[in-house]
Design goal:
178 residues, mainly alpha, Double Stranded RNA Binding Domain, 2 domains, 3-stranded antiparallel beta sheet, two-stranded parallel ribbon, 9 helices, 49% helix, elongated
Length: 178
């Protein structure tokens, strides 16, 4: 369910420094189960972050290093916030942020990759715009100065983003995108 925070958008949270974002979280370190040898079974290397302002949770258990798992959990938390925290956007005078302007080329290609640190802010703004367009993909693509096909391809490329868009559409009584 989308969270509307009264004063902060996803872009606000996802652009905080790691230290600022961690300061807003409850951090749990715990022992991960499964393979990994004695070190994994004896140390609290798994990390779970609960973002207090939004209540969203992300974690990581893959590595035997707590430091690595914390960094991975932070990246996941940023994307989770971008997927679930919405801000209102006025479509009649929409001006894309610098991140969106840099992520969509003049010929309408969407070039923002998942590994780019700006990706969560980019995704958050696209979802805010999509929500403002009442989840109409073609209207959103027009505002982004891209084609519907290119926009849908971008959404489909990230499974969590694709799933979230379809959840949002279902919440509004619309059919899922295919």
């Amino acid at each position: 369910m989308p969270t509307e925070h009264p004063s902060h958008s996803a872009a606000f949270y996802v652009t905080l420094s790691d230290q600022e974002l961690i300061a807003q979280c409850e951090v749990d370190a715990y022992r991960a189960s499964g393979p990994g040898g004695q070190k994994r079974n004896k140390t609290s290397s798994a990390v779970r972050l609960r973002h207090k302002p939004t209540g969203l949770i992300a974690g990581s258990v893959e590595d035997r290093s707590q430091h690595t798992n914390k960094a991975r959990a932070l990246r996941r938390l940023r994307l989770t916030i971008a997927l679930h925290v919405r801000a209102k956007v006025a479509t009649d005078n929409y001006k894309p942020s610098a991140v969106v302007r840099e992520g969509v080329t003049s010929d309408g290609r969407i070039v923002m990759g998942r590994k780019d640190h700006r990706y969560p802010a980019f995704v958050g703004e696209l979802l805010d715009l999509l929500a403002a367009c009442e989840l109409r993909v073609s209207d959103t693509a027009k505002l982004l100065k891209t084609t519907t096909g290119k926009f849908v391809s971008f959404l489909k490329d990230e499974p969590k983003l694709w799933q979230r868009v379809n959840e949002m559409r279902q919440e509004c009584g619309l059919s899922a995108l295919k």
